[in-house]
Amino acid sequence: MGLGSNKYLFYCQTATQRSKAMSNVEKEIILGKLTRKEFRERMQNGELGVCLIPVAAIEQHLEHLAMEHDWRSLKHITRTVAKRLAPRVLIAEGLMCGISEHHMRHPGTITLSPSTFLAALGDIINSMARAGFQNIVVINGHGGNIEPIHGTWDQFLRQFEGLNLHFLSYWDTLHQSDADKLLQGGKQIPNDLPGHAQEFETSIALAKFPENVRLEAVKNQIDSNPTLASADQGNAWFDCITKRLTIFIEEVLSGERQSETPPFHP
């Protein structure tokens, strides 16, 4: 059957099947899952209000967590938030790797130079602005990305003047009181919350993607902190983060939360 047979298959679908397919398109939260026509129509009818740009890392997470942890956890968080706010929010997943030079003594880690990472991030922001988004939120899931982004953020705000542009790490939604309440071991921010492959991150993995946790390795490491992790704790963290991040994005959608362009030299 050639490509033209797709038209035949479409007409053979029941009205219910076609309606369900259209409904899925209307609710789709991932940019890459849409065709150009589907994206264009949703943007033109004013349905899309905010673009989320997740940035994370692929790097070592001790002996017990899969190296995709930062990206996988951030993906779960942003997709949960976008689903709650569908169809007004779309996710542009274009930058899975981050700045991880400090982990490169552990083979398998992927790192981008700061200049490469920031250039790619700027290009993604630019692409989404040119696509029609007036509200863009960059959500980070890796500590190594924070300082380079902070150091450049004023430049992005000037470059994209008029755009309501925001940046935060997903754990910025958490506070010391949360650490005191939920963490069983150390409670310092940022050493323990979020930490690195410690109780916090291991708990989220146990709750949302337990296949990425090597349980024997958890017990056999020198660092015993990850043994304090639990799926229940991970679910509590996830619920807290996604609820507060949803409120943040709602404030961006409503116009209550606006970025400010830094001054230009006179």
Written description of the protein model:
- This protein has 266 residues and is of the alpha/beta class.
- The protein has a single domain, classed as Creatininase (Rossmann fold), CATH 3.40.50.10310.
- The chain has ten helices and four strands; from the N terminus they run αααβαβαβαβαααα.
- Strands 2-1-3-4 form a four-stranded parallel beta sheet, sandwiched between helices.
- Strand 1, helix 4 and strand 2 form a beta-alpha-beta unit.
- Helix 4 packs across helix 10 and helix 8 packs across helix 10.
- The chain is globular, with a radius of gyration of 20 Å.
- The N and C termini lie far apart (66 Å).
- The mean pLDDT is 92.
Can you give me a brief rundown of this structure?
The protein is of the alpha/beta class.
Structural descriptors:
4 strands; 47% helix; four-stranded parallel β-sheet; alpha/beta; 266 residues; Rossmann fold; globular
